[in-house]
Design brief:
alpha/beta; 2 domains; 12 helices; 5-stranded mixed β-sheet; 7-stranded mixed β-sheet; 12 strands
């Protein structure tokens, strides 16, 4: 039996207040163990669960520690993963970047100690039941991309999860960035390979099977967008609020915590649209003078961050690399959007942010992954019965019937997330958020306890949501 969870985004608590509720893991693991116990009972033999953590488990981007350390000392740009043009290449990150990432990981481990203990099976209620063995497998995504840059950092992450080293498991179809397991008819990867913003080696005509481990090393533009724009916005707003006599300390902390929800906005490029909407929403609940001050500070902060981003050497080199003559491309869209945000007022900025998100909407990861799943070559994982493509990355749980031909039935499944997500409404006028939890389970033919008996592998998914 194989189970997949992904996109836990364990954070250090600086750029976002909430981490995953440990109770979510208690619920998910009990359901997974119940499925395994049913196989044990019906097959009258032990069962091993491969618990696959399919990327973006540790979030090394959603943090304020790339700006200042725990003592409040400023972190130089050279110690950030995008601190030099060389980060666009496949050379390992510098020792200074890895050391800084290690300190961020230290805080993540403390902040999420209870949840991690549950995942490792060290708490009484979450230990595997009799007859069930658990092997934990970890594949990195884009928010934990630095895992692939340093063996020491990778070993610490695996230890925190109780995960095994993948070297030597290739004969089982287990690789650093993908699973190809005919036993389950399963091809699984994080899924950011289809996202040009978050996979620097992305090629429009390529399929992930062509990418090598080296292709996962370059820094994508999504990394500094996440940190220097999204994570930095509430950080800088809070600093500016400290100097404002119109805002009380209680109001300042409330605004700061509300703005931190920018980290959960989906799609990513709707983040600034959300920030402007949130400024209006906050202003509507405050005294007139304070409301005007909040709008002014949000406006000034967005302009400043957009301009700072445009000044990054990394961004300039990325533009040069990605600009294509005679057609509008991602470089053109980002350049125009940042230029507009660095110049206009609050109302104009909302319009630009909305139009930018709409223009880039065709590359929205949820849709790109769904289309990409249909391009995967599944011959390596099965010729008859059900075959599965499993991704994470999008935070959107999904089951899609891809194709059916001559006894080969292909299904795409997405493992969603365990975090709160904030979504732009269909009318483009607002945002609504709720918590979600998803896991996927796959069964080999000899584990399927069906009546009447059936051939081939099978799957089960579970998704829950809570809004309040």
């Amino acid at each position: 039996m194989l189970a997949i969870i992904s996109d836990l985004h364990f954070c250090d608590g600086t750029a976002t207040e909430k981490n995953v509720n440990p109770g979510a893991f208690a619920l998910a693991l009990r359901e997974i163990y119940a499925l395994a116990t049913e196989v044990v009972r019906k097959k009258d033999r032990p069962v091993r669960i491969d618990l696959v953590l399919l990327g973006d488990v540790f979030d090394l981007l959603r943090t304020e520690r790339w700006f200042e350390d725990r003592e409040g000392v400023a972190v130089p740009l050279s110690e950030r993963p995008w601190g030099s043009v060389a980060a666009l290449g496949s050379a390992p990150a510098s020792p200074a970047v890895i050391a800084r990432a290690g300190r961020i990981l230290d805080e993540i481990l403390v902040e999420n100690a209870e949840a991690l203990a549950m995942l490792r099976g060290e708490t009484e209620g979450e230990r595997a039941p009799a007859g069930v063995e658990v092997r934990r497998l970890y594949l990195p995504g884009n928010h934990d991309r630095l895992y692939a840059h340093d063996a020491g950092l990778a070993a610490r992450i695996r230890a925190a999860l109780g995960a095994v080293e993948l070297t030597g498991l290739e004969s089982e179809g287990i690789f650093q960035h993908r699973l190809e397991m005919p036993r389950y008819g399963l091809l699984a990867r994080h899924g950011h390979e289809w996202d040009e913003w978050n996979f620097e080696s992305y090629q429009p005509g390529a399929v992930p099977a062509k990418y090598t481990d080296q292709d996962y090393l370059p820094t994508p533009i999504g990394d500094p967008i996440t940190t220097e724009l999204a994570a930095r916005l509430p950080y800088e707003i809070r600093r500016r609020l400290l100097d404002s006599p119109r805002i009380t300390p209680e109001e300042r902390e409330h605004i700061y915590r509300r703005m931190q929800r920018i980290e959960d906005v989906r799609p990513l490029l709707a983040s600034f649209q959300w920030a402007y909407c949130e400024a209006d929403r906050l202003g509507g609940t405050m005294r007139t003078a304070a409301a005007d001050e909040v709008r002014r500070i949000v406006d000034a902060t967005v302009k400043d961050l957009a301009q700072r981003f445009r000044d990054l050497d990394f961004y300039g080199a990325w533009l040069e690399k990605h600009n294509r003559a005679l057609r509008v491309d991602s470089a053109d869209l980002l350049r125009v959007g940042l230029y507009g945000l660095s110049l206009v007022s609050l109302e104009g900025g909302l319009g630009i942010a909305t139009r930018l998100e709409a223009l880039v909407g065709t590359g929205e990861p949820r849709d790109a992954c769904r289309l990409g799943a249909g391009r995967e070559d599944l011959r390596t994982v099965g010729q008859q019965g059900l075959r599965f493509v499993a991704y994470g990355h999008t935070h959107s749980p999904l089951e899609v019937a891809l194709s059916s031909s001559a006894g080969k039935n292909s299904v795409y499944l997405n493992s969603g997330t365990f975090r709160q997500s904030v979504f732009r409404t269909d009318d483009k006028r607002g945002f609504i958020g709720w918590e979600r939890l998803t896991f996927l389970c796959f069964f080999a033919e000899d584990e399927v306890a069906a009546t009447p008996p059936r051939t081939g592998p099978a799957f089960t998914t579970w998704t829950g949501a809570r809004g309040q």
